[in-house]
Amino acid sequence: MEQTFIMIKPDGVQRGLVGEIIRRFEKKGFTLKGLKSITVDQAFAERHYADLSAKPFFNGLVEYIISGPVVAMVWEGKNVVITGRKIIGATNPADSAPGTIRGDFAIDIGSDAVESARKEIALWFPEGIAEWRSSLSPWIYE
């Protein structure tokens, strides 16, 4: 099974959207394997966004991510990276369809590829994730 990293950023936490976002992934049949609420320090945020360090918006992005608590999650399931991106919606909220998280709430979250998901999970969950299989798994995945 594939895994992805999903982060609910400070605005989503402050707006009380954590439960709604988790609900959408659970209803799709994905399994929550790791969950933590954390306030990120600057050095960690810079590591997380290292691939964007040359971009003009990098400093603002780091400041934003350290401005309040975030909820970091690892989700598992068949094609969870690509399907998770569909649940989340297009990067630009104006391009996100209604019914997606960004389309409904304009939240910016989630891994964009399997390899970036692996890196993000290793960074955010160095202690590992919960190893368990839902009893619903045989009903969801043939």
From TrEMBL:
Domain annotation Nucleoside diphosphate kinase-like: ranges: 1-131
Coiled coil: none
EC number: 2.7.4.6
CDD domains reported in the protein's UniProt record: NDPk_I
Catalytic activity: a 2'-deoxyribonucleoside 5'-diphosphate + ATP = a 2'-deoxyribonucleoside 5'-triphosphate + ADP; a ribonucleoside 5'-diphosphate + ATP = a ribonucleoside 5'-triphosphate + ADP
Keyword Kinase: yes
Pfam (any one): NDK
Keywords: Kinase, Transferase
Biological-process GO terms, alphabetical: CTP biosynthetic process; GTP biosynthetic process; response to hydrogen peroxide; UTP biosynthetic process
Top-level taxonomic group: Eukaryota
NCBIfam families, per database record: PRK00668.1 (NF001908)
Assigned protein family: Belongs to the NDK family.
Protein role: Major role in the synthesis of nucleoside triphosphates other than ATP. The ATP gamma phosphate is transferred to the NDP beta phosphate via a ping-pong mechanism, using a phosphorylated active-site intermediate.
Name of the protein this chain belongs to: nucleoside-diphosphate kinase
Record organism: Phtheirospermum japonicum
